[in-house]
């Protein structure tokens, strides 16, 4: 029995496209109803519409693009971004209508929350998403979260919503994350091949040595790579299994693959920086600054900067690189890109004396910085 899952009071459940649609791309109403039966049963009601017995669920649902393929007459998932967005526009309404009807059988309302990578990257949007989800849960509503594929401009980046689900788990401080796929567990190789062995537990990265991670399924964008990455960053117990095993997984039974949380849970701020942002530029560091930032968790001072690339503004996330161009950290910069060349190699005392007291500050403060190499990247401190 997986006690951490049994004790969970707030969970995130993510279902992939292939778990929600038929082979021709249309919504599989029977499968959705079966999954809603499980979620409503786990959540529990006491007979009053929407009244829960202290359990809350956020459902991260893929399937908008897949659901739109049939109505648009598309035989398979298109590569063209505009076609993907058109399919998502049609499919998202169909998907939410189906969830609304299915959860209504239990007197439960649903609320649609569409997010983009940009929403998770911008701190103010990030906080707004957190407040919205918390308010929906307070009202006893089941949030249905999906990437806002209709307006995504940098392709569909979350990887079949696996990484989005892990970030949402952090966002709402969930107790567990359930990833539902078309495969019942993580295997050492392709489960269709003889000799492929199910991995029951993953406690540390070494447990994945020799494991061959496959690509995406028939209608999704993710694969085992994105699911393992989601489990690594979630910071809470994660169960990976198929939709048919959702009930046993939520009951703590030994199904699928169980990812144990590794060490202390990263702070939401540093997790957000590491996994939900993209560097808007680059700042190059000398070896001494790399040592200070990576090993000693120090702030980045102007004296250690040797170069700057890109056009960014104060407050943007930027990548910090060593003298070979390798990204070693990411942080929220305190200066515009155009200001930094004049500051490079200078001490903050000199800058304050020559340019004014407003320049006596770090390029990036350590509280707004996350290391992306070595053990500290996998488990940032609070």
Descriptive overview:
With 382 residues, the chain is of the alpha/beta class. The chain has 2 domains: 3-268, 3-Layer(aba) Sandwich (Carbamate kinase); 279-377, PUA domain (Archaeosine Trna-guanine Transglycosylase, Chain: A, domain 4, Roll). It has helices spanning 3-6, 29-43, 64-72, 81-104, 117-121, 123-138, 162-171, 224-234, 246-250, 268-275, 287-295, 340-343, 348-355, 375-378, and strands spanning 10-15, 56-61, 110-115, 142-147, 176-181, 201-202, 238-242, 257-259, 281-285, 305-310, 317-321, 327-332, 369-371. The strands form 2 sheets. An 8-stranded mixed sheet has the order 3-4-2-1-5-7-8-6, with helices on both faces. The protein has a 5-stranded mixed sheet with strand order 10-9-11-12-13. Helix 3 packs across helix 4 (81-104), helix 7 runs parallel beside helix 8 and helix 7 (162-171) packs antiparallel against helix 10.
Give me a quick take on this structure.
It catalyses: L-glutamate + ATP = L-glutamyl 5-phosphate + ADP. The chain has 382 residues and is of the alpha/beta class. It has helices at residues 3-6, 29-43, 64-72, 81-104, 117-121, 123-138, 162-171, 224-234, 246-250, 268-275, 287-295, 340-343, 348-355, 375-378, and strands spanning 10-15, 56-61, 110-115, 142-147, 176-181, 201-202, 238-242, 257-259, 281-285, 305-310, 317-321, 327-332, 369-371.
């Amino acid at each position: 029995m997986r006690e951490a899952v049994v004790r969970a009071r707030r969970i995130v459940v993510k279902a992939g496209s292939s778990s929600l649609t038929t082979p021709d791309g249309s919504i599989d109403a029977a499968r959705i109803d079966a999954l809603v039966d499980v979620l409503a049963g786990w959540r529990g009601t006491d007979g009053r519409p929407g009244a829960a017995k202290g359990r809350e669920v956020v459902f991260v649902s893929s399937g908008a693009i897949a659901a739109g393929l049939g109505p648009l007459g598309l035989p398979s998932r298109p590569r063209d971004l505009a076609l993907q967005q058109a399919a998502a526009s049609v499919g998202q309404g169909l998907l939410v209508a189906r969830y609304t009807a299915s959860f209504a059988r239990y007197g439960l309302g649903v609320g649609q929350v569409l997010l983009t990578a940009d929403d998770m990257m911008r701190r103010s949007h990030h906080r707004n998403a957190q407040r919205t989800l918390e308010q929906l849960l307070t009202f006893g509503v089941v949030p249905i979260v999906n990437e806002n594929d209709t307006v995504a401009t940098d392709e569909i980046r979350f990887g079949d919503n696996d990484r989005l689900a892990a970030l949402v788990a952090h966002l709402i401080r969930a107790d567990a994350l359930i990833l539902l796929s078309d495969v019942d567990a993580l295997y050492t190789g392709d489960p269709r091949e003889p000799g492929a062995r199910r991995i029951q537990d993953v406690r540390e990265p070494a447990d994945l040595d020799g494991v061959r991670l496959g690509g995406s399924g028939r209608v999704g964008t993710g694969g085992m790579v994105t699911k393992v990455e989601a489990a690594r960053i979630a910071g809470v117990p994660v169960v990976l299994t198929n939709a048919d095993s959702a009930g046993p997984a939520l009951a703590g039974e030994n199904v699928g693959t169980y990812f144990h949380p590794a060490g202390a849970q990263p702070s939401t701020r540093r997790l957000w920086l590491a996994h939900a942002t993209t560097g808007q530029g680059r700042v190059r560091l000398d070896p001494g600054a790399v040592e200070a930032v990576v090993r000693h968790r120090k702030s980045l001072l102007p004296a250690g900067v040797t170069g700057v690339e890109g056009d960014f503004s104060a407050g943007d996330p930027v990548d910090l690189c060593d003298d070979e161009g390798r990204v070693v950290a990411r942080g929220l910069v305190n200066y515009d890109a155009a200001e930094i060349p004049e500051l490079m190699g200078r001490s903050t005392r000199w800058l304050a004396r020559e340019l004014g007291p407003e320049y006596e500050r770090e390029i990036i403060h350590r509280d707004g910085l996350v290391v992306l190499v070595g053990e500290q990247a996998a488990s940032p401190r609070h």
